[in-house]
Specification:
Elements (H helix, E strand, L loop, with lengths): L9 H26 L2 H21 L5 H9 L1 H30 L2 H6 L4 H32 L3 H26 L5 H30 L8 H40 L11 H6 E2 L18 E3 L11 H6 L1 E3 L6 E4 L15
Parallel strand pairs: 1-2
Antiparallel strand pairs: 2-4, 3-4
Helix pairs in contact: 2-9, 3-4, 6-7, 6-9, 7-8, 8-9
Amino acid sequence: MAKDRVGPNDEELDGAVDRLLGGRTHNLSAALRSALDVEAGLRDILLHSRHDDLVDDLGAILDVEAGLDDIVGAGVSQQRQRPEKNKERSRRAATAEDRCLRMVSPEIRITLRISPDVATAALTFERAHDLLSSLTQFKDSTRTLRANLEPRLAFAVCSELQSAHEHAIGIAGDLAHSDASLAVRDLARSLAVGLTGNLNTARTAAEVLLQRDPHSTDAAEIREMADTLSKAATRNCARGRRLLRLCAEEVRGAVSTVLGRDLPVLDEESIGVFLDDFTAADLRAADLLGVVLDGIRWSEYGTLWPTAVNVEVLKAQSDETPPGSGTYIVRKGTAPMHNAFAGLF
């Protein structure tokens, strides 16, 4: 005769526990939903990541300089803004450059060029600087085109855009296979793609202007394209400045890794001086074995080289800038890459 069961078996206990936990979990989730706004929290998290993009896109809507030009005239607004802006920018740049030069000795600064990571980041930064220059010229050209719808001005816009597009394509290609941050790679790629579309619009505008009857008063189509290009130029300049800042951060990161300490004052205004300016540097104790001198600025009167360096040979590999100043820039591709200054001693 089977013995009567006194209590629930293991399966029944497990089922009861699962039902209890399921009910408690449902109640907890409901309580959390009433106390927490998940969507608001997600928006707060994403706000900072989208901040730079939102600021950049304001450039497509607001053009402060153009607005001032319309109110008081281009000449007056530029006279009021640019001297003060340039003066303040120069003051900040000089302060940052001076602090950088005091923090790291010239012997160490020049040997940073041996690091592949520093060299790669510095080259990308230089290209980003060239890109921003081209984008600024593109912006200026579109303003001129908006004021005067002439074929030659449209072709000038095409020329500036072509230069900017080539720079952007080169930067995006370099960064695609690098260890650079995702932000800088995405921004470079986005700029390259955007400039492709801008270039097509500019070419269409030039063709329309070339075929247009000069006595025609119907310029709505071409004016719309000129406005589109002007807004794109303003937006791209903002993104070009952001790309330059991000590339500067890549340089600072590479330099900080080599030095083993951070240089917070190393930014887009001071990188050129930090890596390239040795016009007042004492390099007599520097180990120049394997150092690439391409692009450095040095002075016939202010730079002190190791005794083994033949200054006359170095002069022959450099361009005096400006002529008669005694300040030289070593030409790219002419400085010795290996064998420690073969021919310079």
